[in-house]
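Researcher: I'd like a structural prediction for the single chain below. Treat it as a standalone chain; there are no partners to consider.
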Amino acid sequence: MQNRSIVEIKAYLERIDYDGPLEPTAETLRGLHRAHMLAVPFENLDIHLDRRITLEDGSLFSKIVGSRRGGFCYEMNGLFAALLKALGFRVEMLSAGVTREDGGFGPPFDHMALLVHLDKRWLADVGFGDSFREPLLLDERNEQRQDGFAYRIDDDGESLTLRRRGRDGLWEDQYRFTLRPHEYADYLEMCHYHQTSAESPFTRRRVCTRATDDGRITLSDKRLIITRGSHQEERLLESDDDYAAALREHFGIDLGGLRFS
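Model: Treating it as a single chain, here is the predicted structure.
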């Protein structure tokens, strides 16, 4: 097993509550991916705490593993790629543009996804929030079903488009991506944009969300939404103390009395 001092494999695996096989196989990849989605929340709280996000393995490890936090795509997929590489996987960072409300796509580096090379190629992504819990076969053009949803990867000229069919039966674009490999430096401009621009969805509202075995738990600003199967409960948290308590109870996040800007 290849090891890297900056990513402590044992601590990372404990963070995601994973005790399965570690050989670089499709089985391991699926297990790690699902465990990450269930344990580590997609969240943008640092942006609303005026904390700068640094795209560097050591900083991300300290935040996500050491401080038991989550993050958004660049953080989550960046560190997950580091874990996979430490375990001997061949991984590449991909540039994607997320679907916009007007039906178009965001610019390059709007989102980071991962390409994992095994005997087959896999699309991995632990940083897109409510998304596939296990990696998808990149070169499969038929639908791939998971957890009540179907996913499809379609050729789109020089790009590929990820689509999801929901329980209503409709296909929706998720993001468009290319297969050219990239490094952290390539994402810096868009990472800064998403932390600072009034046009970024991440500056407009706070979000913290993670998958559960039978659904999802989400804090959207002060709305707590708990989904179990087809049943959904929602309530408004009336105070900052209620919000902090929900973060601790459902996500294991303790901000230590910090207040949002």
